[in-house]
Every structure is written in structure tokens, then in C-alpha cells.
Amino acid sequence: MATTLPAAARVLRSPVFFSVAAALVIGALFLIGTGADPLTAYQAVLTGSLGSDGIGSTLTTGTSVLGMALALAIPLRAGLINLGGDGQLVLGGIAAVAVGLYSPLPAPLTTVLAVLAGMAGGALYAALAALCDIKFGVPLLVSSLLLSYPAGSLASYLVRYPLKEPGSSLPQTERLPDGVALPAFGSSTVTLGLVLVALAAVAYHVVDSRTTVGYEMRMTGLNRRFSAYAGVERGRQTLQLMAVSGAIAGLVGAVGVLTFPFRFLDGSLTAPGYTWTGLTAALLAAAAPLGTVLASFFFAVLQVGGLSMERTTDVPRELTQVLQAIVIVFLAARLRITWRRRKSDEPQKESRKDPRKVGA
Amino acid sequence: MFLDSDLALSALRALTPILLAALGGAICERAGVFNIGLEGMMLMGCFTAVTTSWFTGSPWLGVLAAALAAAAYSLILAVGAVTLKGDAVVLGVAMNLLAVGLTSFLLRTVFGVQGTFDDPDLAGLGEIAGFSPLTWLSWGAVAVAAVLLSRHAWGLRLRGVGETPEAAATLGVSPAKYKYGAVLASGVLCGLAGAQLALGNVTLFSENMTAGRGWIAVVAVMLGRALPLGVLLAALLFGLAEAAGFRLQGLGLPQQATDAAPYVVTLIALFLTTAKRRRKTGAVV
Fold first, then answer.
1. Number of domains in chain B
2. Are A360 and B285 in contact (CB < 8 Å)?
3. What is the DSSP string of B213-274?
4. What is the rounded end-to-end Cα distance, in angstroms, of chain B?
5. Residue A179 Cα, gap to closest chain B Cα (Å)
6. Which residue among B218, B219, B278 sits closest to A137, beta carbon to beta carbon?
7. Transmembrane segments in this chain: where (chain B) (predicted)?
8. Distance between CA atoms of A231 and B262, rounded to whole angstroms?
9. Per-residue pLDDT tens for A229-261?
10. Which H or E element spans position B205?
């Protein structure tokens, strides 16, 4: 009792709890404003996403959200923001579908190869963004984001011309051959993809808490200059973390084409906004592995539950997107988050350089 | 001829929203507030401009309302980053997400449509001598910002607050006040950018219609080193890439290649300028 009470008080006072509660209250005001009953609406969110009809859908959505959240959390742990998730996701998807369509190997091997190709595609593209930062001095935030748009255009071009399904009016590839797919559990829409993403989460947890790499990552996130002083090579670390980040984003892309609709349809991977939901989840959890899993599940519940809220109360499901953003607004304002953009380190570096400049 | 006056004109039209937003970003940067919420502020401007113009019939009230609404929206960044000392990057990302969600939500509750609101009766901004009035205004704003930042006491204090807030504070300049001013100014400019986009470039509102322009503005700030004229040149480069892309599309290049062009051009420009800066600093030290 003596230990649980302060723990409960700590939870109540924590910024995460405050932000989520504040967002739900503001959401209730929105609901009242549109003439809906907040309790009915929130209940619809829960029953729609966690009830027997919705849980499968929540887990399917959760697969993609968690995958993207992990992809963005890993660099975030070291204070790096990867804004190019969409590009890495799409290139992963297109690489996986290309392998899936043209590999001469038997179906199970092709599936494995397609997943690996997706991860490689995402990893290479994210590494390119990291190289822009390390070699050319374009901040990662900007290089990853700017590279994201051409990746989308490239994928869009490929599915409209070279990879287009002949005779179809949609910008999509052919359906993958029979058997080239991630197996589903029973008759549900939940596939092996969820297991792959969950394994990635477990791996992240172990690396984060038990290994040198994880320690260096957290140190860099807490204090970049300390970790540089302690001998962590920033360039190599950025490259490695971004490659892993891109590989997981690519995995999500591969899972997206190796499950329903079993093909690459232009825009279908990015339209649900998994990248941004994932980033929100990673930010909410401050990139901690277990927290990222919980936050992803929470946002998947909101996203799927939003649909049933719309059916029950006629309140547009976009409200859930508003709630998501409000959580982060409150959180960002309340937390003095420890990572800093590189820019804020620079004046100090420069002022250290200045005397030498004057002296020379 | 490929590089003719038509191309220049379409480049100038394409650049107005980016220029206005980037100017706001530059002012914030100078005051030491990293503003990546330009995209969201602009989107709020788009929606307010269209809604106000639709209900009042006056596009000018739309412009005014857009500037006010985006300025009010920018308070999230001002309060969060300046008063509460939160993380500006995270706040900016959240503001962009919130704007997408909020405008899509309001589009459905106010107009009852999903995706795009488009009506022939929606009044857009006219043209003065071939350009939208806001395009003329944007050039005026560049000149005013350039003079204010380099020659006026306000600009000097603003830059002082951005570079060393402690020193500014000892001289009796309130850093918080100047930072609020800079963020609000960026809100007004982004609101105008949004109004230009939704009532000038086109006359409609569609979900997420800013489509990365706010991010390009962030890059333009970086490329133009937060100088008003530098930002103008950077935005011009982007406008030219976009206009040239449209032209190349007419010549048979696939649309996707031309869609990607502005981003690739911007990235290359960033490579070149940072490489040059590195060589320069390398020579000094």
C-alpha cells in the first residue's frame, strides 16, 4: 500500500497522463460542440476497436502503426528525428512487390526474399538521408524529409508505367502470385506481419536495455556532447540508427503489400498516415521501447475506434486525428525534452571557435 | 524558347505562398525560435480564408481572417516553446498534424464534404497587373523585413534576442516579448500564404492542400540563411523548379519526375551551399 500510493500519484502527475487526459477533455468539448454525447462517442471508440468485431482490425492497423513507431523511435532515442518514414515505407513496399512478382523461386522463399528486399530498400534510402547529414551537412530532419517526396514519386511512376497491371484502370501492380503472402492467423486479417513487428519491438527492448549500442544511443539522446566526449562516433551512429530505422519502415511497407490487397496500389501505404501516427506514438513514449508499444496500441485503438464513433454518432472520424495531435502538443509543452536539435549546440561550438579565429 | 517570360510568370505565382511562409520562418529563426509549424499555420490560413470568403462573400475578409486565425494558431508555438520552454521541433510537428486533423474535421462539420470544398460562387482574389495582390504584398514584405531586420532598432533587438538572449535581457530587452512578436508575425505571414494558396493560386479548399510547401519554406529559411533576400532567392529557386517541371511535363516527361524535381533541386542547392560554407570556414580556422 505504501508503495502503490506514491506510484499512483506519480502516474497521475506524469506529463503523459496529463496530456492524454487533457486531449480527451478537449475532445469531449469538440463532441459537445457538434451535438454528440461524449460518453457515447468514447464508448463507441472502445467497443468499435476492442470488441470482437474490431480487435482484428485494431491489431492489423496496430501492426503498421507499431512498425512505423519503432522505426521512428530508434533514431529518436539518440535525439535524431527521421521525417522520411513515408519514403522509406513506400520504397520498402515497392521493393517487396517487385521481388514478389518477378522472383523465380518457390513461393515461401520468395516471400522471405520479398520481406528482406523491402527492409533493404528502406534501409538504403534512410542511409542516404543519413549520409546527406554526415557528409554534406544537410540536417537529418530536412534531408530525410526532402528525400521522402521523390521516393513517393518514383513509386508512383513505377506502378503507373513499368510495373502497372495491364488493362487495369488503377495505378497498381499485378496481384502477387498465389502463396507469396504472409500467412494469416485463422480467418482473421492478422498476419505474421504482426509477429515480425513484435519481434522487432522485443529486439529493440533488449538492445536498448542490455547492450552497449543501446547505452550509447540513450547517452547520445540525453547529452550529445557527453557521448561525443566519451568516444561515440556520431556519424557512424547516425548511419547505423537510420539504416535500422529505414529497415523497419521498409518492413512495414513489405508487410503492407504481402497482406491484403497483395499488390502495390499507389498511395495505399501512405494514405492512412501510419508514419505520422507512428511518430506521434514514439514522441509520446519518449522513444522508450515498452512505452512505444503501448502508445502505438493506444493510437491504433483511436484510429480504428474513430470509424465506429463516426457510425454511431455522426461525428467525423478526423476527430481522432485531432486528439492525437493535441496529446503531443500538451506533451511537448509540458516536457523539457532532453534531445536538442543540432543547431542549438552550434552557437556554443562556434563561441569556442571564435577566440581561436581572433587569435589566428 | 524554354526559358521565356511565361515560365518566369508561373514561377513567380508558384513561389508566393512559399515566400510568405519562409519570411515568417526567417523572422522566427532570427529571434531564436525554430519554427517548423509553418505548414500547419498555412493550412489553418487556407481553411479560414475559404470559410470566411464563402460565408461573407468577401475574399478580403477571408485574407484578414486567415492572418488572424493563423496568428492565433501560432500562439501554440509561442506559449509552448517560449513560455513553457517546450521542444519547438516536437511542437511544430504536432501543430502540423493538428492542422491537418482540425481542418479535415471542420471541413466535414462546416461544409459536410470530404476531401475538397469547391464552389463556383466561392470568391477568389483578383489580379492586379497580372499578379495576385498578395504576391505584390509578399515582395513588399520582403523589403520591409529586410530593412527592419538590418536597419531598425526592432530588428537589431530581435537578432540580439536570437543570438544571446541573456545579453539582450541585460540591456532591458525582453526576449520573451520579441520571441512572441516573431512567432505571431510568422503566423500572420503564414495566414497570408494560406489565403494566397486557397484564394489566389486556386479557389478551393482541399485536405492537406499545402502539400509540403511549409516544409519547403523551412528549407528556404535554411538555404537563404534566414535573410529576407536570401529567402526570396531560395523561394525563387523552388518556384522555378516547379514551373520548369510543369513545362517539362508538357514536353512529355512523366508527371512523377517533375513532381520530384523541386525537392531534388532544393536538396542539391543545400548540398552546394553547405559545402561552400564548409570550405569557407575551413579556410578561416
1. 1
2. yes
3. HHHHHHHHHHHTTT-HHHHHHHHHHHHHHHHHHHHHHHTT--HHHHHHHHHHHHHHHHHHHH
4. 47
5. 32
6. B278
7. 6-26, 33-55, 61-82, 89-111, 215-240, 260-275
8. 39
9. 988 999 999 999 999 999 999 999 999 999 989
10. strand B205-206
Q: What integer pLDDT is reported at residue A332 of this predicted model?
A: 82
* Gap between the Cα atoms of B277 and B121, Å rounded: 51
What is the pTM (predicted TM-score) of this model?
0.88
Q: Is B225 helix (H, G, I), strand (E, B) or coil?
A: coil
- Half-sphere exposure (CA, 13 Å, Cβ side) for A138? 25
Question: What's the pLDDT band for A104 if we cut at 50, 70, 90?
Answer: very high
In chain B, residues 115-174 whose CB comes closer than 8 Å to chain A? 163
Q: The CATH number of the domain where B96 resides is what?
A: 1.10.3470
Tens of pLDDT, residues B176-231 = 999 999 999 999 999 999 999 999 988 999 998 988 889 989 999 998 989 999 99
The span from the CA of A41 to the CA of B168, in Å, is 51
pLDDT exceeds 70 at position A106: yes
Range of the domain at B173: 5-284
pLDDT digits 0-9 by tens, B240-283: 888 888 788 878 788 888 888 888 888 888 888 877 766 655 43
* CATH fold of the domain at A60-340: ABC transporter involved in vitamin B12 uptake, BtuC (1.10.3470)
Residue B266 to residue A146, Cβ atoms within 8 A: yes
DSSP code, position A230: T
Nearest to A66 by CA among A250, A214, A281: A281
Residue the block writes with cell 475559404: B50
For residue A26, pLDDT over 90 is answered with: yes
- Number of H helices and E strands in chain B, helices first, is 11, 2
Amino acid at residue number A104: P
Q: Which residue in chain B has the smallest CA separation from A286?
A: B90
Judge whether B248 is closer than 8 Å to chain A, CB to CB.
no
Instruction: Name the minimum distance, in Å, from the CA of B176 to any CA of chain A.
Output: 16
Where are the extended beta strands (E) located within A163-272?
none
